[in-house]
Amino acid sequence: MSKFGKKKKGLPAVNTAALPDIVFMLLFFFMVTTTMRETDLLIEPPKLPNASEVKKLEHKSLVSTIYVGKVKPEDRAKYGAGDKIQLNDKLANVSDVANFIYGEQEKHNPEEIPYMTTSIKSDVRCGVGTIHDIREELREINALKISYSTRKGDLTANLK
Amino acid sequence: MARKELPEINAGSMADIAFLLLIFFLVTTTMDVDSGISRKLSEKPPENFDPPVVKMKNIFEININRNDQLLVEDEEMEIKDIKQATIDFLDNGGGIGKIVDNIPGTKCDYCNGERSDSSSDHPNKAIISVQSDRGTSYGMYITVQNELLAAYTELRNRYAKTHIKGKYAGMSYEELLLLDDKDNDQLKAVIKKIKNAYPQIISDAEPTK
């Protein structure tokens, strides 16, 4: 039974010299493909509708985003279960949209303002009523370029 | 003078540092899409503005009720049929187009429609009006908008393929848009011509309560 007593010969250590290279590669991949998270969502992350005729939004800095959706289940008691609008980091009313857009416009040069786009990120289950209210508010202040944020994909998924 | 050899820097923790950075980026960034259906809202009309009179036959009326059912020109319709119905309406070409730059309107010589008297006169006169209910789901609304845009794209593609001569002959409208050549005036003019042939006139009516 001397076999058991034999001292086990250690395997040579795996060479990890290339590990930093691999990790850096991953790091650069994520740095290039992702964008910074700008707002913490107070509403449930909206399930965006699918569409086939999508257009890419160009100049990201000229886009102001309005989120529409229901609040998270734990906050329902506080805010109610209806459709809510989120501007920056706060839940807001339709009447706050104008101020929000003015605030966004102030950050840019006056000549850039006509190119500013408002992106509406709304959940598929929301009602059109809220969207219409926002649209009217935007017309009121002459912020006419809008984009309904969608993913490219199968249309039948919108109707569930 | 003999130089003292520098000791090699230990790079063993390089991987840890890189991992730390990687995890930081994973947490703080998102991969969200930034694409969507772009629309230009109509300007708010000035006070006591008389809306121009539009013939009923030039309006394509779409109603969506709160149960997400469609009523197109007073007939119930399935979502899959709406694209073809829109194309038929836009491409009808039954009359004379509207006056552009003081040039009197002409007949639509590129339309392939039935030229029926009860449908639109000319693509530049054809208006699509979408009326939804406040309770209509956003998903349904976007689906309808998407179908309408798909109808316009199909007509524009056809026009581009058959009526554009010269350098860009034989290309569809979508292919022309993908040519990323922002400063090319010739391309811009071609795209503008196609857009003017089938201008997008979609209006959102006040939703029903």
Could you characterize the architecture of this molecule?
The complex is a heterodimer of chains A (160) and B (209). Chain A is an alpha/beta fold. In chain A, 29% of the residues lie in helices and 22% in strands. Chain A starts with a helix and ends in an 8-residue tail after the last strand. The mean pLDDT of chain A is 85. In chain B, α2 (82-90) crosses α3 (138-163). Chain B has a domain at 59-204. The termini of chain B are far apart. In chain B, a hairpin with a 5-residue loop joins β3 and β4. β8 of chain A pairs antiparallel with β2 (35-40) of chain B, so a sheet runs across the interface.
Structure characteristics:
heterodimer; A: 160 residues; alpha/beta; 5-stranded mixed sheet; 5 helices; 9 strands; 22% strand; elongated; B: 209 residues; 7 strands; 14% strand
Can you describe this structure in just a few lines?
The complex is a heterodimer of chains A (160) and B (209). Chain A is α/β, with parallel strands linked by helices.
Low-confidence stretches of chain A: none
Strand-residue proportion of chain B: 5-15%
- Form type of chain B: elongated
Span of the ends, CA to CA of chain B: 93 Å
Query: Helicity range of the residues of chain A?
Result: 25-40%
Strand order of the largest sheet of chain A: 6-5-4-7-8
Main structural class of chain A: alpha/beta
**What is the total tally of β strands of chain B?**
7
Q: Which H/E pattern describes the elements of chain A?
A: HHEEEEHEEHEHEE
Q: Report the C-alpha radius of gyration of chain B, rounded.
A: 27 Å
Distance between the ends of chain A:
69 Å
Main sheet of chain B: which strands, in order across? 5-4-3-6-7
Strand % of chain A is 15-25%
Low-confidence stretches of chain B: none
State the assembly state of the protein chains.
heterodimer
Protein chain pair with the most extensive contact, residues per chain: A-B, 58 and 51 residues
Query: Overall pLDDT of chain A, averaged?
Result: 85
Largest sheet of chain B: 5 strands, mixed
Q: Work out the helicity level of chain B.
A: 25-40%
Which term fits the overall shape of chain A?
elongated
